[in-house]
Write the structure tokens for this entry.
Amino acid sequence: MTDEAVTRIAAALERMAPAPLETPDFDGAEAFVWHVSPDRLDPVAQVNRVEIDLLLGLDRTRDTLLRNTRQFAQGLSANNALLWGARGMGKSSIVKAVHAAIRAEGHDLKIVELHREDLPSVARLLGHLRGAPYRFLLFCDDLSFSHDDEHYKSLKAVLDGGIEGRPENVLFYATSNRRHLMPRDMIENERSSAINPSEAVEEKVSLSDRFGLWLGFHPCSQDEYLEMIRGYCRAYRVPFEEEALRAEAIEWQATRGARSGRVAWQFFTDLAGRAGISVG
């Protein structure tokens, strides 16, 4: 076999099994995104977040998540958290805002985003975080599972940790539109077709039970929706006339068939743009 052939074979093997990720440099950033193929932790120069004071109507949820995160940042016991409920009501925003608030208190807490489709690689990620001299929020946004999805088994490695246990310096926060992470018809199908229906259903429903903290997000009322917009206007000094704002905001949400914190922000963005003010 020629040297050229050996070189080609070695290169092909390296592509099939890339070199292990070197110890990441966690000193240079507060946030990272986990990617695979090859494994890497990419630093995030600037986190896309909303100030915690702008998340109106979420006082109790905010305080609960702040307290839990603060305990963890201080090296005390804390629970993994599942934030579930209505779309656009600030689930992911409050996680990022709480992270910023805890850092502002002087705790060098890092946040690592894990995409749902990369859950099978979570054991490798935890291996890198386990030995680091920092505490990490591991964050998975919009977590849910479909009928034939086996990724939920990988999630148990984060929540239960297997024989090694979850790293002491890692806490897991996830957001989902579903309280039990699985679609209802999937659970019903398991109940009707499994050899042991109760065990099959229990394995899937109990996944969310492994989160020690459940925080529900519910659709907002019209008054709450309008107050969110007023709050944004005050924070960014966007002038408004109450009656005009009310009429336009209600028409805006009617055209979208939904009323939420996200819709409130979208209307405010349009309002600020018309006023010649950039909100980023």
Remarks:
- The domain at 31-217 is CATH 3.40.50.300 (Rossmann fold).
- The chain has two domains: 31-217, 222-274.
- The first helix runs from residue 3 to 16.
- The first strand starts at residue 31 and ends at 35.
